[in-house]
Amino acid sequence: MQTLLITGGAGFIGSNFVHYIMANTNCQIINLDKLTYAGNLNNLKSILQHPRHIFIKGSIQDRMLVKQLLDQYQPDGVVHLAAESHVDRSIDGPGEFIQTNIVGTFELLECVRDYWSRQDATQKAAFRFLHISTDEVYGSLGPTGYFTEETKYAPNSPYSASKAASDHLVRAYFHTYGLPVLITNCSNNYGPYQFPEKLIPLMILTALKDEPLPIYGDGSNIRDWLFVRDHCSAILKVLTQGQPGEVYNVGGNNEKTNLQVVQGICDLLDKLKLRLKGGSYRELITFVKDRPGHDRRYAIDSSKLKAEFAWVPEESFETGLFKTVKWYLDNLDWCQSIKSGSCRG
Would you say residue 61 lies in a domain? Predict the structure, then answer.
């Protein structure tokens, strides 16, 4: 592909994917991001002036803008990452999740469908629309088993329900209009540039302030953790080799309880950044009331992705967590820009 339109390319996964594409292909990137609280121009600082990267501040709900970008740059594909993504925020205010994740995806699909319908046969056949989703659409697992591409949807939060709805819309545009779509459902991502409301960066930065580290319930909720750059490599595989209409699950094969994750962070900080008051950061761990609809366990079966594309994650949770903690310690100025809001342009 020569040109890609990427939505949400200033967010956590989006900015990592943009960097990955810039480093591993010669593709031109048209990067559309609304720059809400989670969108951060500092994530893109090193490539903002690169001739292959064009950043546009705007919303996927702005049909006129999206149509203009499609007609002007003639992309060979669209990677749709723009989304509201934090479960706690969706509980407190679900409306924004409905607007961005459902209505926004619909508006984008309509623009892309119109653009795609006007291409010649060769261009139509080569075009791809890749929708990035989450394993949370599947609901909660028991102590055994894995989510597969055939698992029935059972979302339990406004966030996961909004993502499930957008998945169904994307699928419908394939079956109704023939739009060559692909869907990926990924497990919990972590790594550089993640907004500090999410578990791992929140715990790192809270520990550095020597404040209590709150863990929901008894800390035994289990997630499958995927280093973000491993996710990016999977996205590129699906985009370039995936079969239109198919769904691909992307997991890291790293099941950890929330308590194990926080303990791992504390242990790394004990080695990399001694606590000012002495003692271990583990002493800061505090259990708090569980949140509503907190799914017990997620675990992804990525065997389809591995079988079709020979994809495997490069990072173990231990190596990925070390790189992540080290990145935040080395980039505290980035964290400060997030807090001040000076990065949104």
Answer: yes
- Per-residue pLDDT tens over the stretch 294-305: 888 999 999 999
Residue of 138, 159, 193, 281 with catalytic role: 159
Q: Which amino acid is at 19?
A: H
148 pLDDT more than 90 = yes
Number of domains composing the chain:
1
Could you report the per-residue pLDDT of 227-254, keeping only the tens digit for each? 999 999 999 999 999 999 999 999 999 9
The pLDDT value given to residue 221: 93
Q: What pTM, to 2 d.p., does this model score? A: 0.95
For residue 345, pLDDT beyond 80: no
- CATH at 236: 3.40.50.720
Say which of 76, 84, 136, 295 is annotated catalytic.
Answer: 136
Q: Measuring CA to CA, which residue among 262, 317, 344 is closest to residue 43?
A: 344
Is 83 domain-assigned?
yes
- Residue 271, domain member (yes or no): no
Contact 108, 211 (CB under 8 A): no
Q: Tell me which of 76, 84, 135, 167 is the catalytic residue.
A: 135
User: Which residues, other chains included, contact 313 with Cβ-Cβ below 8 Å and sequence gap of 6+?
Assistant: 226, 227, 230, 252, 253
Is residue 94 in some structural domain?
A: yes
Distance, C-alpha 337 to centroid of its chain? 21
Query: How many Cβ atoms are within 10 Å of 257's Cβ, its own excluded?
Result: 16
Burial of 176 (0-12, 13-18, 19+ CB in 10 A): exposed
Please report the pLDDT score of residue 338 as a whole number.
76
159 catalytic, yes or no? yes
Secondary structure (DSSP) of 85-121? --HHHHHH-THHHIIIIIIIHHHHHHHHHHHHHTS-H
Whether 330 is a known active-site residue: answer no
List the beta bridge partners of residue 28.
3
SS3 308: helix
